[in-house]
Write a structure and sequence with these properties.
Radius of gyration: 19 Å
Helix content: over 70%
Structural class: mainly alpha
CATH architecture: Orthogonal Bundle
Strand order of the largest sheet: 1-2
Number of domains: 1
Shape: globular
CATH class: Mainly Alpha
Number of strands: 2
CATH superfamily: Farnesyl Diphosphate Synthase
Number of helices: 15
Strand content: under 5%
Largest sheet: 2 strands, antiparallel
Length: 307
């Protein structure tokens, strides 16, 4: 097990402190875009600063801590991944995609501002993420972070997973565990894994010998498991939750014929799969000692979440 800290680790306080850091910086970043159309910035701000768990930035900070860095080093990367995540939500909610009208307990961006401005707000956020990295890191760190984020969010990552997810609404697609996990390793998992890489590169990107490969491998195993557990719990919330608690419309996946963990395995087996993956993730970071403790607590939190 993880070694004892001087003080007990409090995940709620940790997440709250990192959320405050990130949201303050995100607001500052948007305030600097003084030459952009006001309605575009309003739509970007509406979605980017909507209430959220900020799990992806938290992963960046936790990886940075494991790599011996500082929060100030991790902050631009943490903001960049949250910006990418928000862009993906705006586009995912569009009528041509998941056609959602509620996100984070609020009307979705296209419901508030119209489809055209929502699409453009997503486009602007996507490009802003890479601008943030380029403006705040030295060249080697910028290159490593941009590569990791592009790989995690692009055609072979998140966007490719979204394409596969849409395809699996058709009845002629194979409905197997391998197919399901292929989708979610890409749609959600690759961005989680990118968060962990970004945290390490933010802390170690300028080292002559580069980032610690063993640490990157451990965190990648953790990220792979984290992404699948996150998706399993998300699927269970869609089946068993309610809109007031989850902040988004529930029951939509079954209605659209999507391939989900409860639909394929049933709720009990889905939970068992999530528990096994949680243990695999914890085993991967246990050798990090106290530096890996936040990752353990976050993994347990995601397993138990109901929203």
């Amino acid at each position: 097990m993880i070694g004892d800290s001087v003080l007990p680790f409090n995940l709620k306080d940790y997440l709250a402190s990192k959320q405050t850091l990130v949201e303050r910086r995100l607001g500052d970043l948007l305030a600097r875009e003084t030459h952009a159309p006001a309605n575009l910035i309003e739509a970007m701000r509406y979605s980017l600063l909507a209430p959220g768990k900020r799990l992806r930035p938290a992963l960046v900070f936790m990886a940075e801590q494991a790599a011996g860095g500082t929060d100030e080093q991790a902050l631009p990367a943490a903001c960049a991944v949250e910006i990418i995540h928000t862009y993906s939500l705006i586009h995912d909610d569009l009528p041509a995609m998941d056609d959602d009208d509620l996100r984070r307990g609020m009307p979705t961006c296209h419901k508030k501002f119209g489809e055209a401005l929502a699409i453009l707000a997503g486009d602007a956020l996507l490009t802003l993420a890479f601008q943030v990295l380029a403006e705040h890191y030295p060249a080697r760190t910028t290159a490593a972070c941009c590569l990791a984020l592009a790989q995690g969010s692009g055609a072979a990552g998140m966007v490719g997973g979204q394409v596969d997810d849409l395809a699996w609404e058709r009845p002629d697609q194979p409905r197997t565990l391998d197919a399901l996990e292929h989708i979610h390793q890409h749609k959600t998992g690759t961005l989680f894994r990118a968060c962990l890489k970004l945290g390490v590169h933010a802390a170690q990107g300028e080292r002559p010998d580069g980032a610690d490969r063993t640490l990157l491998d451990r965190l990648d195993t953790y990220g792979r498991c984290f992404g699948l557990v996150f998706q399993i719990t998300d699927d269970l919330i869609d089946v068993e939750g309610n809109a007031d608690d989850s902040g988004k419309r529930v029951g939509k996946d079954a209605a659209r014929g999507k391939l989900t963990y409860p639909g394929l395995l049933g709720s009990d087996e889905s939970r068992a799969r999530a528990k096994a993956l949680t243990q695999e993730a914890i085993d991967a970071v246990t050798p990090l000692g106290v530096a890996g403790e936040p990752l353990v607590h976050l993994m347990q939190f995601v397993l138990a979440r109901d929203r």
